[in-house]
């Protein structure tokens, strides 16, 4: 009987550990897809996005007093007066709870380097093609190193990093932490908000961002097909972060990217055919921050996004 009890306890312990690990990996997957842009894939907020935000995103690696309930509350409700918006309309409770637990374990407690970001599941099926940029990502070579001192291969790697990696990646190491890397609070002043002071209650994360606010409003289109409605949900959940809810790319994130996020309202069915639009969504756009979604979205979902963009955002040629 004692042996049976011990065996049962061991099995339960193994099951609990497996469940906890599965939850941790779910948190990693969601974090890597939703949170890395501002907080960095290693949780230290050393991202290009962070240099544009005031107050900056939370550096989880130094937040010793941070608790799991506090992270969960921020995910549910956002943080007034900051760029942290609510994810309650995008993530379900299980996903938010998994992210909160992941952040506490991975970054606050274990101070771990989140090396599982560049995976096929996250849209990086062939990350090795960026190998020339790796020394700049790891800090082995400073980004502001004298270009003349770099080899031809290192110059190509630096150009690749600055054009394709830096908008989401840690900015790694620089020699001179001067004006080139100082904070650029693009969205302020917003409705009287003053950094360092308690924000007025009406300030929210994004929609109060002065001239950028109008581009966070999705177009109201009557008569969408079922496929187009599905595409609308997918676009607003996945694409609007960079392209703006209206597809113009003139929201604050889209405008600080280099090159800027594409203005989808400037295209027509002739200038960007349906097949080409699907290809760009699926494979990404080299030399820009447009990632490949083919490993994240199903073909039918990509098709739905394309159908919605063509209907809601493309300009129509000829008479209305």
Automatic annotation (TrEMBL):
Give the species this sequence originates from.
Answer: Leptothrix cholodnii (strain ATCC 51168 / LMG 8142 / SP-6) (Leptothrix discophora (strain SP-6))
Lineage: superkingdom: Bacteria
Q: Which residues form the Cytochrome c domain?
A: 22-107, 226-313
Q: Does the keyword Oxidoreductase apply?
A: no
PROSITE patterns xref list: CYTC
InterPro entries on file: Cyt_c-like_dom, Cyt_c-like_dom_sf, Cyt_C_IC, Cytochrome_c_Oxidase_Subunit
Reply yes or no: does the keyword NADP apply. Answer: no
What are the entry keywords?
Electron transport, Heme, Iron, Metal-binding, Transport
Q: What is this protein called?
A: Cytochrome c class I
């Amino acid at each position: 009987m004692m042996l049976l009890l011990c065996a049962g306890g061991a099995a339960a312990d193994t099951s609990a550990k497996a469940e906890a690990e599965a939850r941790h990996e779910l948190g990693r997957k969601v974090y890597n897809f939703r949170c890395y842009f501002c907080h960095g894939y290693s949780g230290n907020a050393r991202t290009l996005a962070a240099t544009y935000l005031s107050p900056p995103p939370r550096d989880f690696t130094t937040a010793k007093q941070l608790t799991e309930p506090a992270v969960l509350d921020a995910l549910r409700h956002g943080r007034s007066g900051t760029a942290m918006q609510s994810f309650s309309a995008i993530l379900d409770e299980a996903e938010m709870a998994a992210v909160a637990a992941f952040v506490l374990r991975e970054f606050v407690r274990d101070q771990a380097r989140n090396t599982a970001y560049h995976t096929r599941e996250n849209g990086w099926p062939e990350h090795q093609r960026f190998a020339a940029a790796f020394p700049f990502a790891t800090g082995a070579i400073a980004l502001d190193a004298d270009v003349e001192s770099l080899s031809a291969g290192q110059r190509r790697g630096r150009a690749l990093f600055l054009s394709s990696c830096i908008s989401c990646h840690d900015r790694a190491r620089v020699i001179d932490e001067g004006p080139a890397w100082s904070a650029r609070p693009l969205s302020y002043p917003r409705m009287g908000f003053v950094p360092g002071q308690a924000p007025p209650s009406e300030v929210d994360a994004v929609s109060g961002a002065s001239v950028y606010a109008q581009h966070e409003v999705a177009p109201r289109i009557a008569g969408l097909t079922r496929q187009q409605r599905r595409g609308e949900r997918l676009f607003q959940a996945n694409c609007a972060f960079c392209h703006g809810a209206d597809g113009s790319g003139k929201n604050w994130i889209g405008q600080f990217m280099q090159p800027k996020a594409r203005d989808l309202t400037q295209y027509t069915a002739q200038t960007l055919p349906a097949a080409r639009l699907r290809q760009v969504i699926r494979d990404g756009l080299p030399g820009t921050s447009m990632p490949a979604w083919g490993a994240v979205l199903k073909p039918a979902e990509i098709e739905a996004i394309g159908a919605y963009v063509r209907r809601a955002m493309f300009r129509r040629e000829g008479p209305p």
